[in-house]
């Protein structure tokens, strides 16, 4: 999990003269403490970023080593490629299909779990369980479900006289199938975060609302969901980034096919760089930079638009 | 302050997405040239002290890996204290080539590497290997025992560049029990695409509810089969006589013949007579083994595995022709063994050559043939008593031999020699998918695939000069 970009910035205070005097010393100390993480940051984020930019401006030799400078050619090629436009569209669709159901689904589950029914603890653990699955094992299990001949899904369909559907082999269904797998995998983490969020809602607020006669939907709409705002916001940001970077399930389930219908930006980067013996690190890097910009833009929009509506208790 | 902290957080989160690509593309600059030096003589190994280790990368899995590992331990036992071959599985053929490219950059190539047929052009251009011919010439070792078709495939300029090892052709696999159940004779296998289509309709079985319980035909969406069918019809896949007279500059698979083949396939799927299990060959193989498809295309290399896994009688027949008039034959697929030059000691090269000679000897190739289904690259293997006995007992293994003998070496049956062949193959696979989905007619889909591969061909050709 990436570190939570939780916006708990310190409140501004006017420094007293004595504090101002100590400021330099404090700053120096702060930088000293920051140094180890800055080194790590430079090494594992800064260097790869620089390297990617460098590679994206170079053509490759037979083995994938940068050979000659081509400037922005890889980027202009991307702009004029219909194939790349399709990839961006697929990426956007995939993100929508995973983030919206993933966050809303988890919210509904968590709200339902608020009802004091027997075995709620068991259910809560059960819903958080997908978090414990690795991408690879979950994908393999879903591949078995989706199998056109022996899969359980087509088995159920045939019971009601429908199908068979080529879940992963029909370009109309493949993206939805992969997205559904991803939603299931993300659900565990989402449920966990929202459960924790609900647990930290002050009981006096809920009790006050109950005394005022609120219950059920009304309580959820006016108290629980608004109080979960920071958690929902956090989940939306993290799921979006996560979803834009999804690779394992696509690789295992469809390899970007059929007919490129599940080829997202990350998968396209992989194909250019590593698949089919292509070793085209230049074009792959250019796409990786585009991916960076897309993630950046999404995150910026979410911080700029969504966060304004979040209420921090 | 708060704003920049947010921006930093966002940058950090986003930046993680980049680490993956760069971390894997190492920074080597010198791509190593001046290879193809001569082969060392036998004394290189005699003078070497201690055990010479040969790192051997391969792509064999399942039953085939077991047989290969058996050959390796036999070789090691025979050369104890002198040579040790360390066989390492490096993923499927495509993945192995990707790893090999990285190894070239890092100057850490294995001494011996198994590369698939369509990687041949790349391996020649890489200039990282010592041709098998150089060793044979040095030793006066005769290569005449090698099958002529196979030798032809792995030769460039009349010289053998790599040692053929696991050679295969595609076959038409039959579920004999399904044939009998449908009142058909499995000995009367379809000979061409039209015949196959007819039979597929008869062999497709539906249950009372109208659900298909068995498809007449089913094969992976694998570009290799289209390459084979084009070769059967004598049609070129790329220009300049399949890149054999001079370097190929473009693919020409978007011919009428190509479109006819792809359309035929798509129509069978659309009509409900062929199962569409996608690109993954494992899935198509599983469908055949489970008995859910009656006719199936696959390599000879899976025959032994099928025999052991299937609960029905597995039949084999010659790979279909596109029409009765076809004069060609299938391309020899499979893979060959390459000995690395730069960065390896003479003793290592020599030890790798010893291993190549060992695994292509009549006896070992007979063991390989009967153990896997790949046909023997050594002609004498077929005279081996064990091999004869095996083929007499399981006539399915004879089909591939007959098919190979019937194939005349021509540019069409030699297959296309193209540096970016794996990408071309992928393009054809996409075209098949598009035709099945009905988004494009076959001809258009193939033409688009050809257009899309063109920049890759040009940049490849310009990078090798």
TrEMBL record, chain A:
GO terms for biological process: transmembrane transport. Its main location: membrane. Residues 84-302 form the ABC transmembrane type-1 domain. Residues 1-22 are annotated as: Disordered. SUPFAM superfamilies: MetI-like (SSF161098). Keywords: Cell membrane, Membrane, Transmembrane, Transmembrane helix, Transport. It comes from the Bacteria. The keyword Transferase does not apply. It is a multi-pass membrane protein. One of its GO terms (cellular component) is plasma membrane. It is found in: Cell membrane. The chain crosses the membrane at residues 28-47, 88-113, 125-146, 173-198, 219-238, 284-306. It holds the Pfam family BPD_transp_1. Gene3D superfamilies: MetI-like. The keyword Transcription does not apply. Belongs to the binding-protein-dependent transport system permease family. This is Glycerol-3-phosphate ABC transporter permease. It comes from Streptomyces rubellomurinus (strain ATCC 31215).
Automatic annotation (TrEMBL), chain B:
It comes from the Bacteria. PROSITE patterns: PROKAR_LIPOPROTEIN. Keywords: Signal, Transport. One of its GO terms (cellular component) is cell envelope. InterPro entries: Bact_solute-bd_prot1, SBP. This is Glycerol-3-phosphate ABC transporter substrate-binding protein. Its main location: other. SUPFAM superfamilies: Periplasmic binding protein-like II (SSF53850). It is found in: Cell envelope. Belongs to the bacterial solute-binding protein 1 family. It comes from Streptomyces rubellomurinus (strain ATCC 31215). Residues 1-22 form the signal peptide.
């Amino acid at each position: 999990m990436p570190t939570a970009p939780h916006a708990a910035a310190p409140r501004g205070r006017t420094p007293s003269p004595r504090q101002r005097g100590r400021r330099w010393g404090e700053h120096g100390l702060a930088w000293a403490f920051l140094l180890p993480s800055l080194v790590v940051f430079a090494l594992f984020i800064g260097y790869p970023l620089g390297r990617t930019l460098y590679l994206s401006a170079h053509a490759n030799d037979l083995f994938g080593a940068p050979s000659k400078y081509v400037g922005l050619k890889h980027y202009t090629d991307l702009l004029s490629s219909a194939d790349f436009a399709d990839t961006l569209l697929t990426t956007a669709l995939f993100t929508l299909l995973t983030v919206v159901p993933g966050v809303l689904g988890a919210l509904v589950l968590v709200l339902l779990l608020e009802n004091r029914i027997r075995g709620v603890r068991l259910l809560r653990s059960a819903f958080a369980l997908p978090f414990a699955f690795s991408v690879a094992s979950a994908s393999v299990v879903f591949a078995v479900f989706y199998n056109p001949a022996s899969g359980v899904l087509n088995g159920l369909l045939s019971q009601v006289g429908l199908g068979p559907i080529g879940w992963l082999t029909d370009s109309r269904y493949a993206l939805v199938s992969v997205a559904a797998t991803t939603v299931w995998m993300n659900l565990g983490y989402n449920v966990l975060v929202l459960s924790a969020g609900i647990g930290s809602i002050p009981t006096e607020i809920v009790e006050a609302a109950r005394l005022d006669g609120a219950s059920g939907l009304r309580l959820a709409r006016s108290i629980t969901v608004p109080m979960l705002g920071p958690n929902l916001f956090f989940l939306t940001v993290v799921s979006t980034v996560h979803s834009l970077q999804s690779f394992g399930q696509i690789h295992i389930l469809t390899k970007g096919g059929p007919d490129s219908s599940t080829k997202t930006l990350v998968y396209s980067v992989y194909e250019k760089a590593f698949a089919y013996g292509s070793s085209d690190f230049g074009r792959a890097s250019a796409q990786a930079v585009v991916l960076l910009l897309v993630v950046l833009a999404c995150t910026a929009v979410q911080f700029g638009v969504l966060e304004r509506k979040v209420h921090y208790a | 302050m708060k704003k920049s902290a947010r921006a930093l957080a966002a940058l950090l989160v986003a930046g993680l997405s980049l680490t993956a690509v760069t971390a894997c593309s190492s920074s080597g600059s010198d791509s190593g040239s001046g290879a193809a030096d001569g082969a060392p003589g036998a004394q290189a190994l005699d003078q070497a002290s201690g055990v010479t280790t040969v790192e051997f990368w391969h792509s064999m899995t399942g039953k085939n890996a077991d047989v290969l590992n058996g050959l390796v331990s036999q070789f090691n036992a025979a050369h104890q204290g002198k040579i040790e071959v360390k066989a390492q599985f490096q993923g499927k053929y495509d993945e192995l080539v990707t790893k090999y490219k990285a190894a070239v950059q890092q100057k850490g190539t294995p001494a011996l590497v198994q590369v698939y047929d369509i990687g041949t052009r790349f391996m020649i251009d890489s200039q990282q290997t010592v041709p098998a011919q150089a060793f044979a010439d040095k030793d006066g070792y005769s290569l005449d025992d090698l099958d002529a078709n196979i030798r032809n495939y792995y030769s460039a300029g009349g010289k053998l560049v790599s040692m053929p090892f696991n050679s295969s052709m595609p076959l038409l696999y039959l579920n004999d029990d399904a044939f009998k159940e449908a009142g058909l004779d499995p000995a009367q296998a379809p000979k061409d695409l039209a015949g196959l289509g007819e039979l597929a309709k008869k062999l497709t079985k539906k249950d009372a509810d109208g659900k298909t319980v068995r498809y007449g035909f089913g094969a992976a969406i694998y570009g290799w089969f289209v390459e084979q069918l084009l070769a059967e019809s004598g049609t070129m896949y790329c220009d300049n006589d399949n890149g054999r007279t001079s370097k190929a500059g473009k693919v020409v698979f978007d011919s009428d013949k190509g479109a006819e083949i792809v359309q035929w396939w798509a129509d069978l799927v659309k009509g409900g007579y062929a199962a569409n299990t996608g690109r993954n060959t494992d899935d198509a193989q599983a469908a055949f083994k489970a008995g859910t498809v009656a006719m199936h295309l696959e390599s000879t290399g899976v025959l032994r595995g099928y025999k052991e896994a299937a609960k029905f009688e597995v039949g084999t027949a010659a790979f279909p022709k596109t029409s009765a008039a076809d004069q060609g034959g299938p391309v020899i697929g499979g893979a060959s063994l390459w000995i690395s030059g730069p960065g390896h000691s003479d003793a290592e090269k020599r030890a790798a050559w010893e291993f190549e000679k060992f695994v292509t000897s009549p006896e070992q190739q007979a063991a390989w043939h009967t153990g896997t289904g790949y046909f023997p690259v050594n002609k004498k293997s077929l005279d081996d008593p064990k091999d004869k006995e095996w083929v007499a007992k399981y006539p399915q293994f004879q089909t591939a031999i007959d098919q190979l003998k019937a194939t005349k070496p021509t540019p069409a049956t030699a297959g296309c020699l193209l540096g970016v062949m794996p990408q071309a193959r992928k393009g054809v696979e996409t075209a098949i998918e598009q035709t099945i989905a009905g988004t494009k007619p076959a001809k258009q889909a193939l033409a688009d695939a050809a257009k899309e591969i063109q920049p890759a061909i040009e940049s490849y050709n310009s990078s090798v000069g």
